[in-house]
Amino acid sequence: MEQRDVLVVLFDGLQSLDLTGPVEVFAGANHGVPGAYRIRTASLDGGPVRTSSGLTLTPDLALTDTAPPHTLLVPGGEGTCHPDPRLIDWLRTHAPRARRKVSVCSGALLLAEAGLLDGRRATTHWMLCGTFAERFPAVHVEPEPIYVRDGDLATSAGVTAGIDLALALVEEDLGRDLALAIARHLVVFLRRPGNQTQFSAQLAAQTAQRRPLRDVQQWITENPEADLSVDALAARARLSPRHFARAFREETGMTPGRYVDRVRLEAARRCLEDTADGIEQVARRCGYGTPEAMRRAFLRVLGSSPAEYRRRFQPAGPPVPTA
């Protein structure tokens, strides 16, 4: 069996979870398939680095002493804002030799700075996508997915999305059953599809400043099955429909209808993940009315039907042993 070298790039100011999340996934694969991955870390000069949370990490070796790995993993963090030019030069020269280039969160900015994402599809943390697109117009930035695969390049959104991407890579290398067993062992309830949106409706929208609009936002979240038309929501906020729609968009950054769509989809996903309820029951509970309406919403946003979503991403099989 081929042993795949995983090389993790370390630098001052990296986000520790961007590193440890994916590394735990690859290490979990080694419990299921001994020797599947050789995981090493490297900094520019081989010296310790300090993470954004204050942890000190000691790498295995210096980047200059590494051979081209199978998978090169570049984490994100505050250190990507003003990277060492030597790191960018190393990435520009050596990263193309890796069979697979992977970034977590703002690590994509380092790959882009090195010119490795020009003409390619990529994502990063949703808060950075606008700046990312402005700084690197040659990159096709996709702000919604939790990770994006484009040939030998794979980029992911913030923090925990790196775990989802690593699980997808393990599935690609070693099979679905092992990837799902690792997810179960790490208490990652669901291995999410890459095209799943990377933020919830509540995070995607701003919190309204005015109390009546905030109350409406909360009501929508708690009652996805209710009448959530503009007229009904406006009445709850004690505003005219026109005034409500205008104020809601100004204060939250999206229309009431789009917010409702996101909340209902999120509620339906949770029902499919957390319960054994039938598709029709989930559709009613989450305000879709009919299973077909829910199916269209899932296909439009997630690229899979509700039944396929549940089937593909439920954990299965025994947990991976720890020893």
Automatic annotation (TrEMBL):
UniProt superkingdom: Bacteria
Protein name: Putative AraC family transcriptional regulator
Species: Streptomyces lydicamycinicus
Segments forming domain HTH araC/xylS-type: 214-312
SMART domains: HTH_ARAC
GO molecular function: DNA-binding transcription factor activity; sequence-specific DNA binding
PROSITE patterns noted in UniProt: HTH_ARAC_FAMILY_2
InterPro entries per record: Class_I_gatase-like, DJ-1/PfpI, Homeodomain-like_sf, HTH_AraC, INH-QAR
Keywords, alphabetical: Transcription, Transcription regulation
